[in-house]
Amino acid sequence: MTKASSLYRGRFAPSPSGPLHFGSLVAALGSLLEARSQGGEWLLRMEDVDAPRCSQAAADSILHTLESFGFAWDGEMVWQSRRQAAYAEALEQLTQAGRIFPCACTRRELADSLLAADGAVLYPGTCRNGLPAGRPVRAWRVRVDATRIAFDDAVQGSLTCDLSRQVGDFIVRRADGLFAYQLAVVVDDAAAGITHVVRGADLLASTPRQIFLQRCLGLPTPVHAHLPVAVDAAGEKLSKQTQAQPLDPARPGPALWAALQFLGQAPPPQLRAASRDELWAWALDHWQLARVPRQPATPMTNQLLVRSEPAGDRLE
Ligand code: GLU
User: Fold this and answer.
1) Are the C-beta atoms of residues 179 and 172 closer than 8 Å to each other?
2) What's the pTM value of the predicted model, to 2 decimals?
3) Whose C-alpha lies nearest to ligand 1, atom 7?
4) Could you tell me the domains of the chain?
5) Helix axes 84-96, 207-217, angle to 10 degrees
6) Burial of 283 (0-12, 13-18, 19+ CB in 10 A)
7) Which of 25, 79, 203 to mutate to test ligand 1, by most ligand atoms within 8 A of the CB atom?
8) Residue 199, ligand 1, Cβ within 6 A
9) Whether residue 143 has its Cβ less than 6 Å from ligand 1
């Protein structure tokens, strides 16, 4: 793995499981503007590690939309589907360190287990000390310590999570043989020399797992900034599952204006009808991370992560 160095290197990492929607635009825009305002680089990674949920058509559509919206990334885009060897190497390193155990449990067997704060199963530890006799291996889990993971998020404040009580031993290689998102992200961010992760707060619940893996693998932990999550009228996070409308590549201006507004940047109303390039010029001149509102965070992240400081003067 080569590690590049830069004072600031950010990234946008869409999953090509559907077209970009307003929520993805917020993450792309926030991460790019923060990188540029720090004189940093901004990389693009296509997160197609979960191959059954991804398609080339969605990846093409994402690239076309990003280009039509005027996003320009540094260097070559990375495809996760081509990075299996790096993930295997990281899994091997964790195995050597005694961190990994095979798990035979089926989803059905775990169905009665307690739920973790994010709604996933809190692993009851069935296979932690060895596979039950005669049972085949399905997935591979990482053994988590009873340590608290604390981190300072540049938007959400100081947060802590008790990984063993709130998340439990989690999967790094799935029953279908695919590497889990948590492992892939950590390996890729380190390989690319990412110093700052700016993304949606829907991923905040994953951050303690990623920090834990970084520590186990001896990798640096980037600075985090989790942006508020765009929700629909019913209060659901915009996503393919909630049928979020795809961005229209032919009309970038109004969506860019709305994303800047959503991110607390207060773009002048007269720019609503401005061209894409005028909006970019304004955004690059005026971006301030400090204006990004802290909320709405999802109820799930509120449960999982405990704030270790009173809310400051940010919007709640
Ligand atoms: N691929 C993830 C998503 O689209 C983002 C991962 C990340 O930014 O760490 O939700």
Assistant:
1) yes
2) 0.91
3) 13
4) 9-309 (3.40.50.620)
5) 70
6) buried
7) 203
8) yes
9) no
Query: Which pLDDT value is given to residue 245?
Result: 87
Residue ranges, the chain, pLDDT below 50 = 1-5, 311-316
Could you give the angle at the alpha carbon of 293 between the alpha carbons of 291 and 298, nearest 5°? Answer: 155
Is residue 30 lining ligand 1, measured as CB closer than 6 Å?
A: no
- For 183-201, write each residue's pLDDT tens digit: 999 999 999 999 999 999 9
Closest atom of ligand 1 relative to the 24 alpha carbon:
4
Q: Which two tokens stand for residue 29?
A: 């825009």
Beta strands in the chain (DSSP E): 9-12, 41-46, 78-79, 100-103, 139-142, 148-153, 157-162, 170-173, 196-200, 223-227, 306-307
Kindly report whether the peptide bond that precedes residue 296 is cis, defined as omega within 30 degrees of 0.
yes
> What span, in angstroms and rounded, lies between the C-alpha atoms of 183 and 185?
6
User: Is there an atom of ligand 1 within 6 Å of 14 CB?
Assistant: yes
Residue 23: the pLDDT is 92
**Ligand 1 mean position, distance from CA 270 (Å):** 33
Binding site membership of 185 for ligand 1 (Cβ less than 6 Å): yes
Which atom from ligand 1 is nearest to the alpha carbon of 12?
Answer: 8
Q: Tokens representing 104?
A: 């035979």
Contact indicator for 79, 46 with CB cutoff of 8 Å? yes
pLDDT of residue 22: 94
**Residue whose CA is at the smallest distance from ligand 1 atom 6:** 13
Give the nearest ligand 1 atom to 200 CA.
8
Token representation of residue 301:
């992240």
